[in-house]
Amino acid sequence: EIHEGAEGLYLLMEYVDGDTLSQRMQQHPEYFADPKHLLKFFTQLLSCLQCLHQHQVLHLDIKPDNILLTRVSDDVKLIDLGFCYTDSYDQTMGRNDLYSAPEQKSGLQQMVDVRSDLYAVGRLLQDLLLLIGHRLSSTLRSRLEKIAQRSTQTDKSLRYASAEEMSAELQK
User: How far apart are the C-alpha atoms of 92 and 83, rounded to whole Å?
Assistant: First the structure.
């Protein structure tokens, strides 16, 4: 919420007791070696994106430091929407060289769409597979690698068309 007081404008935000994905990956990588935790993480992250996308908002700055996992139930909170791109405010567009889709790196705002966010999710999946892939069954690892590969295609027409589609593929 945005409020105005005697000192000027201020923001009131939810406090989230938890760790960033970066911290969790460094301090507790074994958490993601459990397939149910891995599935829960990506299902909730894609649900966050689905909500944004339904409101014509692209996050465009998805990276491990912009994802929180709560301490109590390990729920996903997507944070830092400061670089979001909307159809009503298109003067800014986030970018992170490790997770940004090729169309973001080109700087052409008219080229980004929901598949740009899904590219970043695919990159996160690749990172987690590098971290814990050897602890997963070869069948599961192979399926997840295919999902990551599809979502990180340079040609965005070959990526998943929506967060729902990618989530459905993960849940198979």
Answer: 6
